[in-house]
């Protein structure tokens, strides 16, 4: 064990001969102490001959946070960046490749110092292009520098869609574009450790965008001209395309704003008439323009759907249904030319947000949910369901190609959402337009995803357990296409099989009586041979139990009584009066006789005579005869024990009245008083039996046939 400890200490770098615990000092901590005690970092002279030394100093300082801080302060205080950029111009003129490579490493290291004051110098108008030039000479490129400056000055063109009169705003836009280019294209991809060192660069770009949005928002003339040209019919297509792309970029920049500033931004756009402008743009034939307008519309819906809903309802009072903004959105979703329906998916998500009751507000004067949903089902739902109704006129889909199936699946997804979140609006629409029957036609589609969407739609309806829906399903025999699809699927174990079985299983488990009876009565012969699951047999059993209850209502009522009295008090337990009597003072009971209190049921009927009592007494008499034989033996034993102890064993006699009068079922105390009826004082001669016991102050229960005898025993002898 000692050997093991010494080996472990050697591995840990400790001296095994020293008993005092030794703690290793982290090298970084030593460096920290040295750095704190040392003065500020001294930079070498900014000359061509010292570039290599400076590059090594920057590289060695980056791993230590304190050394990075000191290096940043030294570079900032001595105005080192401008001196380095002067050396860069000299090296380029002299074609000094080694010097350019050292400058690349130095400038890259300065970026990793992560200091805002340095970025402000580097990204200034007079310095930023030289900084980009330094980053063109990466040693890893084998002498083939990148031409980033040529791209920024010759290829990239700044185009003012609307003339910007503020020179500060124009300069800020130029700076932001170039810094974004440096981050995305010029700087090498940062490693995991370097990512955090560029956080200040990200922040610099972020705050620049915030400033640009604020300055544009404050320029009322600029925004007025923008929306005027967007909605002007005389504006040519190229110009409108540029305006829409600018507005899209403008809204994208707004996502960097704080919530309060974002509210102000979108309110400004709303007051300028952005929604009417989008309505005009969405009505154009240019696909790219419509795509940009859709992106702008998505920003507005995500920000404030109530604002969009309010505009749509106000618009309906002036325009026809065909040119409403929301119907234009639905039409673009339906007519999406993309084979993958990328735009349609985006538009369906926007529609879902607009019809979601969860984000609708209710005020004292109006309820947005009621008003908008009434408007939507009156003016828009027929446009949304038109492709579904047009494609399901027969027993199978009219068009079953992939793109059409995808579109119908999107429509079904939105309708399913409406079933879950809308109440009577969607219910009335489905029942009046017979939508479910049309949807179930799609179970015959060759595309499994579309058939499953149809099944999911019906499953959501059944899951509501609404009898209006159930009666509609039964009246139109809408389980027939489901059963047909199940049988056509055969023995294949797939999603179709599982989805249909789960639907029937839900009906069985939830005991939806009307649907259970409908399924068994109409489709049992088609399903009775399915035995790999017990769902259909369970449905048949439910149905038979239901019929049995209908045919025997008394049996059903008896079952309900038994269910209600499942936890009844045991008939043998004492009543409250009996408990009170047994708890009474024992002095009062000293001269009482033990009797047989009646149970909860009548022992004899009023019309019964002595013959019935004799029949009831037969089991008691036989019991007493057997006890006499045992008592004789007990007396001998007790006699011996009493002679030894000098004490008398407690014994008491039981007397049973054979009276022919009706036995009372009243509480025991009345029958337990001396001379009371049933106590043995009157009537026929009692049948007596002596029962010997040693229990004291204990209530015993002896059951004999239909008789229940309560005995309270003491160390005394009771004459009964």
UniProtKB/TrEMBL annotation:
Pfam families: PP4R3. Residues 623-638 have a biased composition (Basic and acidic residues). InterPro entries: ARM-like (IPR011989), ARM-type_fold (IPR016024), P4R3-like_central_dom (IPR006887), PP4R3-like (IPR051137). Gene3D superfamilies: Leucine-rich Repeat Variant. GO terms for cellular component: nucleoplasm; protein phosphatase 4 complex. GO terms for biological process: DNA damage response. Residues 53-545 form the Serine/threonine-protein phosphatase 4 regulatory subunit 3-like central domain. Residues 640-669 have a biased composition (Polar residues). Residues 589-691 are annotated as: Disordered. GO terms for molecular function: protein phosphatase activator activity. PANTHER family: ATP SYNTHASE GAMMA-RELATED (PTHR23318), SERINE_THREONINE-PROTEIN PHOSPHATASE 4 REGULATORY SUBUNIT 3A (PTHR23318:SF3). This is Serine/threonine-protein phosphatase 4 regulatory subunit 3-like central domain-containing protein. It comes from Oncorhynchus mykiss (Rainbow trout).
